[in-house]
Design brief:
Largest sheet: 2 strands, antiparallel
Number of helices: 22
Order of helices and strands: HHHHHEEEEHHHHHHHHHHHHHHHHH
Length: about 550
């Protein structure tokens, strides 16, 4: 490893670079697929757009609130530092702990596997399908874990499979980790090039959806009952059983639960705060990049969803929709009666019916493999639509992985400087890079790739992610009181009303998730709580070393 340099981080990132890091890590694969699961939950175009609009509002207000903290404390580690200064090192450590254990590394693993999945559409031998691309398999391991207060297991694994796609994901993580170990300059250029390319790809999708394949028929079907349809969804029925026959309340709760996907798709903008020490004039450029980056991405997301509902009917053709719903209900009844073989036959009939349907008739909620972005391009070119979308998503996910790798290492550096992580992680190379932190992050991400648990883990920590967002924005109020004379080159827009609204909305969504999607709450809280004894062990270790 390179010898440390006393000069510290090298400020090689300008406003454009910081903005590209935000845009590049926010835009992954979510915007191309997430609208399908949201549409399945809410059942109408109006609710779909409302959820994305509310997600956008929360994201931009959250970023503008972070901007004040970023201007106050332009230090490596970003959000970790804000939590430490507003509350205590314990809260900061718990955030760093969850980031290393799940949020940052799990996201890196998940997005790298998505890259491999879409590569498999172009080169089938390199895909992630365990049936087609298995290299090594252990059958019938049958692992299962259940948490207190939960009746269903939160983790199950029947078989252990290594696929060629997983090896591709490992190769991507390893290559980009080593590239970023060479210096922030190398990582910056990769990020800028791929972010410009992915933005161009998303713009192409938007233009095609709003102009070339725009369908008056689809728009008429979607706008005929702008807010209807939600009462017919399975999610609405499930929530109604829990809260009673209060239609408006159930609809709001369904919408709140559906926001999990959109919030994840618009997440990771806070990562830019980790690299504050490498941004030129950070008191100006960091807050400005947060505003420019998040608002740009949210605008693109809203336009992308307008493109979806302008070109495809949300529920597809009414006849196909009714047939599929009838078969789903029949299969569910058979499963309840323990007639599994008959239920499987009905499911097979349903799948064959959808397979034979056209892209337009399938609509958004029945888009093949949930790839609604691909469906729009297939309307334009049935032959080249899918390959073009696969290439666009590969470019998008490659840049996303690079940004998360680059920025994550700086968070662990800040933890190490506080004696709350391995000491070597707090040492910079001659090029101003926390090499050991990047390597540890890469190794853990690779292990998560092979574990196959990354998607589950990311689902579980959405509650914890919201907790730390709430704590950080609430930290604005704490620091205005405890550090009234601190330098604040930028003050949060709409303070105190808009930051308070952000905290309130996040709190409502968290309470809602406890009812609507309990599987998304308790595991995340337990992961956070496991960090408490680890924190005190690090403190004891640091004290023993000092003595």
């Amino acid at each position: 490893m390179s010898t440390p340099q006393s000069g510290g981080f090298q400020q090689r990132l300008g406003l454009f670079d910081a903005t590209m890091l935000i845009v590049g890590t926010m835009i992954g694969s979510g915007i191309f697929v997430t609208s399908v699961s949201i549409a399945q939950d809410v059942g109408s175009a109006g609710w779909l757009m409302a959820i994305w609009a509310l997600t956008g509002f929360m994201t931009v207000i959250g970023a503008l609130s972070y901007a004040e903290l970023a201007g106050m404390m332009p230090e490596a580690g970003g959000q970790y530092v804000y939590l430490r200064e507003a509350y205590s090192p314990l809260w900061a450590f718990l955030y760093g702990w969850v980031c290393f254990l799940v949020i940052q590394t799990g996201s890196i693993a998940a997005v790298a596997v998505v890259f491999a999945k879409y590569l498999g559409l172009l080169v089938p031998e390199l895909g992630t399908d365990p049936e087609l691309n298995a290299i090594y398999t252990i059958k019938n391991i049958n692992l299962s874990m259940t948490l207190p207060l939960m009746t269903e297991p939160f983790f199950t694994r029947k078989d252990f499979v290594i696929t060629s796609g997983q090896l591709v994901a490992v190769g991507i993580i390893s290559f980009l980790t080593l590239l970023n170990c060479r210096g922030v300059e190398e990582g910056k250029w990769v990020q800028n090039i791929f972010t410009v390319a992915k933005t161009a790809g998303l713009l192409m999708l938007i233009v095609v959806g709003l102009t070339v394949v725009r369908s008056p028929e689809a728009w008429a079907m979607n706008s005929a009952d702008w807010w209807g349809g939600i009462s017919e969804t399975d999610r609405f029925a499930d929530v109604s059983r829990k809260v009673g026959q209060i239609g408006v309340l159930a609809a709001i709760m369904v919408g709140g639960g559906a926001m999990v996907g959109s919030l994840f798709s618009a997440d990771a903008w806070n990562n830019v705060t980790f690299i504050a020490g490498e941004i030129r004039n950070p008191r100006r450029n960091l807050p400005l990049s947060l505003a420019l980056g998040t608002s740009s991405v949210i605008l693109l997301y809203l336009l992308a969803n307008m493109a979806y509902i302008s070109s495809l009917p949300l529920r597809g053709s009414e006849e196909l929709y009714r047939q599929v719903r009838t078969l789903d209900e029949k299969a569910t009844s058979l499963e309840a009666a323990n007639q599994q073989e008959e239920a499987e036959q009905v499911r097979q009939q349903r799948n064959e019916l959808l397979e034979a349907a056209s892209t337009f008739d399938r609509g958004i909620i029945f888009a093949k493999d949930q790839r609604v972005g691909t469906a729009v391009l297939e309307l334009w070119s049935p032959r080249y639509g899918a390959p073009l979308m696969a290439l666009a998503i590969m470019i998008s996910t490659f840049g996303c992985v690079n940004g998360m790798i680059l920025m994550g290492g700086r968070l662990y550096y800040a933890m190490a400087r506080d004696n709350l992580f391995f000491k070597s992680v707090g040492i910079l190379s001659v090029k101003g890079v926390p090499v050991v932190g990047l390597i540890l992050q890469g190794v853990w991400s690779v292990l998560l790739v092979f574990s196959g648990t990354y998607d589950d883990l990311l689902d579980f920590v959405i509650f914890a992610v919201l907790v730390f967002y709430v704590l950080t924005v609430a930290g604005l109020f704490v620091l205005r009181r405890t550090q009234p004379n601190a330098q604040r080159p930028y003050r949060a827009f709409g303070y105190p009303i808009l930051p308070a609204v952000y905290v309130l909305l996040c709190a409502v969504i968290m309470v809602n998730l406890l009812v609507v999607k309990p599987m998304y709450t308790w595991p995340g809280l337990i992961i956070v709580l496991t960090g408490i004894p680890v924190y005190f062990l690090w403190r004891l270790r640091a004290r023993a070393t000092a003595e």
